[in-house]
Amino acid sequence: MKTVSILSALFGLTLAQYDTYSAPFRLVLSSDDPTLNNTALGACHEGAAVEGLCKTNQTTSDPPTFYTTFYQATSSNSGSTYDTPSILYYNLTISSGTQIPSAMRFSQDYTSDVAIPLFMPGNSTYTPVYVDQDCEELYIPRRVDDSVSPPNPLAPPEKVKSWYVCLTKEAYEYYTLVWHVGGRGSPANPSCEEVQVRRVFT
Ligand SMILES: *[C@@H]1O[C@H](CO)[C@@H](O)[C@H](O)[C@H]1NC(C)=O
Ligand SMILES: *[C@@H]1O[C@H](CO)[C@@H](O)[C@H](O)[C@H]1NC(C)=O
Ligand SMILES: *[C@@H]1O[C@H](CO)[C@@H](O)[C@H](O)[C@H]1NC(C)=O
Ligand SMILES: *[C@@H]1O[C@H](CO)[C@@H](O)[C@H](O)[C@H]1NC(C)=O
Question: Which of 7, 8, 67, 135 is the most buried if burial means most Cβ atoms within 10 Å?
């Protein structure tokens, strides 16, 4: 017991329980490019039971479809879905009609400067994302600025929104959402267009 409580005290912060599920929402882009602005991202096939987040032709005026519907899990302890880590989920529908909750994680090839969000069944691996209370946009907090020496702890953390839509080749060539690793400058991929990703409840 003692060991357990010492361990919980040591690791309490990292033992967040993602036990509260949100209402369904769409992930809608904001962009200077009018062909991307206000379009919803859609789950797209990137392998057996693997989906990426692809550009679609659907705008907020179109009705949501199953492949543009996502939800998130946060900790009940946080009391809010804002500015707290969350797991982003897509429900994969298999042939029996069963829905398989699939958590989002970044797939990173260390020779590329973009990471590709992918959904896979289960939640054993996930990349936590946050929602900015001021604008409903997804971000990842930067807690240490390592562009200066010595590295500078940031309190509060900086809300980094390093999202782009680029022609990628995970399994297939698609225009997908990516995360520009590091969040400074632009991705090397010349097709990338900067976007913001907004949570819009359906
Ligand atoms: C993963 O999902 C299961 C339900 O299938 C849930 O009990 C568990 O708490 C989840 N784990 C995380 C880290 O969210
Ligand atoms: C994108 O959409 C928003 C809201 O509909 C609008 O205010 C903005 O002007 C649009 N931007 C562009 C570049 O079309
Ligand atoms: C989206 O619209 C473009 C232009 O009208 C069309 O070429 C393309 O096939 C459409 N894509 C989808 C997924 O409907
Ligand atoms: C996702 O699937 C789970 C388990 O089948 C179900 O309880 C939940 O209502 C579904 N959520 C959405 C948004 O489809």
Answer: 67
